[in-house]
Design goal:
By secondary structure, this protein is of the alpha/beta class. It has 21 helices and 13 strands. It has 3 domains: 222 residues, Rossmann fold; 183 residues, Rossmann fold (3-Layer(aba) Sandwich), CATH 3.40.50.10490; 37 residues, Phosphoglucose isomerase, C-terminal domain, CATH 1.10.1390. β1 and β2 form a beta hairpin. Bound molecules: 6-O-phosphono-beta-D-fructofuranose. 6-O-phosphono-beta-D-fructofuranose binds next to loops.
């Protein structure tokens, strides 16, 4: 039988089986977990049993995940629609062997750029630079912004700010209060054509000139388009290039991570790379059941494609991972939000889920109501550290951990009508009112979640976590038969925005636009100054 069909029939068979009953069949607490040297991924609180898991592993084998993984690491052109290799892993291949692209070892170039970044970061850290403003969007913003926030206990360099939105509010708010003479502006753009980034970069340049700074000295660029950086007037010694085999959303490991390196220092950045490299090695050598990215992906496929749960909540109980959900939104949704397979034919299954989330415990006081008692099932992915960075606030951390574990337990366990009735009886209610009130306090339970635990959110661990999710996206993409490394779906909006620019400025008519768009333009023109 087709493995997809087999999985679907398993899902139908087990849909009403209580999760807790599974713990009687197996030692799930040790068998439905994956451990690397220092992290533990627990998927025991899902409806996956041994047979289902065996089918999921078969699915990965059938899709050729291992061969494609090896092809990716070896520099094959697995981004077929753009004719490119996918080699963000080379950026953290610190002491690995050569990596060949078109017969050339790319590692000497990678290591030279890393050395140049280190020298520049050290120079900036030793200078009187007080602030760094990274201007970029998408992968040129989310990775460094997420990592910089995540590693704030390790900051000993200048303050870092991130400007992404073309909404002038963001750059205005960011630059206000900064000293143009002691600020470094980093223009981060793989293509150096992105309209938001270039608009913000020009605004920042004008601001610096107006306020006595020197853009020739205080601007740096991170890009694959060196000529364009020169046209913008950036000193070639302050341009850090990378190759087109690094996708935007996979680029934090190289020059795009410069702001992180400036914030935490080259040593800390090396640890970040080494954590990712350790996850790469683990992904390449571990057997499927011991392989964290593989099992994280298979749990994702089970929930999204087989159980048809359309969204995935990422819930870090780690304040400094506040930007992780946004980062993963791009990583997962831009990579796997596709409708055709690599050969151009339509996909047979839903592709990537909607990824969303905020940090715990904040989410508990916002949307957990729906997660616990709503009509839709939302698989939750919890992340939590065993330790915080504030030794004087250990009691906060213990509360944080208790809340995290309580949520996954509550989601699984639920509360029966009988238990709720007893609670109401204890409050003195009887008869119909007791029943009515009890109904509102029933938790259906059996709601799946996974938990990733790690000792401490240090640079090494963050590197492992981010690489873990990158490889998860890869495995899911291979199983779905799609190209996770292009992003054609962002093009149409960009094209239309370009053509709408002069219309919104009132320079061109709305002719040819649909009625709704034309009236919205009219409204804006009528109400703008
Ligand atoms: O939104 C599409 C996209 O191409 C992303 O993939 C990318 O991360 C972002 O734009 C920014 O692109 P660039 O780094 O070229 O400015």
């Amino acid at each position: 039988m087709d493995i997809w069909k087999s999985l679907k029939s398993r899902q139908n068979a087990v849909a009403d089986r209580p999760l807790l009953a599974l713990f009687e069949e197996d030692d799930r607490a040790s068998d439905f977990v994956v451990e690397t040297a220092n992290m533990r991924f627990d998927y025991a609180k899902t409806n996956i049993d041994r047979d289902t898991r065996a089918d999921l592993v078969k699915l990965a084998e059938h899709a050729g995940v291992a061969a494609k993984r090896d092809a990716m690491f070896a520099g094959a052109e697995i981004n077929e629609t753009e004719g490119r290799a996918v080699l963000h892993t080379a950026l953290r291949n610190l002491d690995g062997g050569p990596v060949m692209v078109d017969g050339q070892d790319v590692m000497p170039g990678v290591l030279d750029t890393l050395a140049a970044m280190r020298a520049f970061a050290n120079k900036i850290r030793a200078s009187d630079t007080t602030d760094v403003v990274n201007i970029g969007i998408g992968g040129s913003d989310l990775g460094p912004a997420m990592a910089t926030a995540a590693l704030s206990p390790y900051h000993d360099g200048p303050r870092c700010h991130f400007v992404s939105n073309v909404d002038g509010a963001q750059i205005a708010d960011t630059l206000r209060g900064l000293d143009a003479k002691t600020t470094l502006v980093i223009v981060a753009s793989k293509t150096f054509t992105t309209i938001e980034t270039m608009t913000n970069a020009r605004t920042a340049k004008a601001w610096m000139i107006d306020h006595g700074g020197d853009p020739k000295v205080q601007f740096a660029a991170l890009s694959t388009a060196e000529e364009k950086t020169a046209d913008f007037g950036i000193d070639p010694d302050q341009v850090f290039g990378f190759e087109d085999w690094v996708g935007g959303r996979y680029s934090v490991w190289g020059p795009i991570g410069l702001s992180v390196m400036i914030a935490i220092g080259p040593k800390g950045f090396d640890a970040f790379l080494r954590g990712a490299q350790a996850m790469d090695t683990h992904f390449r050598v571990a057997d499927p059941l011991e392989n964290m990215p593989m099992m994280l992906a298979l749990v994702g496929i089970w929930h999204n494609q087989i159980c048809d749960y359309a969204t995935r909540a990422v819930l870090p109980y780690d304040q400094r991972l506040a930007y992780l959900p946004a980062y993963l939104q791009q990583l997962e949704m831009e990579s796997n939000g596709k409708s055709v397979q690599i050969d151009g034919t339509p996909v047979d299954h839903h592709t990537g889920p909607v990824v969303w989330g905020v940090v715990g415990t904040n989410g508990q006081h916002a949307f957990y109501q729906l997660i616990h008692q709503g009509t839709r099932i939302i698989p939750c992915e919890f992340l939590v550290a065993a330790n915080g960075h504030e030794p004087e606030l250990t009691h906060h951390h213990k509360l944080l951990v208790a809340n995290c574990l309580a949520q996954s337990e509550a989601l699984m366990r639920g509360r029966s009508f009988g238990e709720a009735s007893k609670m109401m009886a204890a409050k003195g209610l009887t008869g119909a009112e007791q029943e009515r009130q009890a109904q509102h306090r029933v938790f259906p339970g059996n709601r799946p979640s996974t938990t990733l635990v790690y000792p401490l959110l240090d640079p090494y661990t963050l590197g492992q976590i981010v690489a873990l999710y990158e490889h998860r996206v890869f495995v899911e993409g291979v199983i779905l038969g799609i190209n996770s490394y292009d992003q054609w779906g962002v093009e149409l909006g960009k094209e239309l925005a370009t053509s709408l620019g002069p219309v919104v400025e009132g320079v061109e008519p709305t002719t040819g636009k649909d009625g709704s768009t034309a009236s919205l333009v009219d409204y804006v023109l009528k109400h703008s100054g």
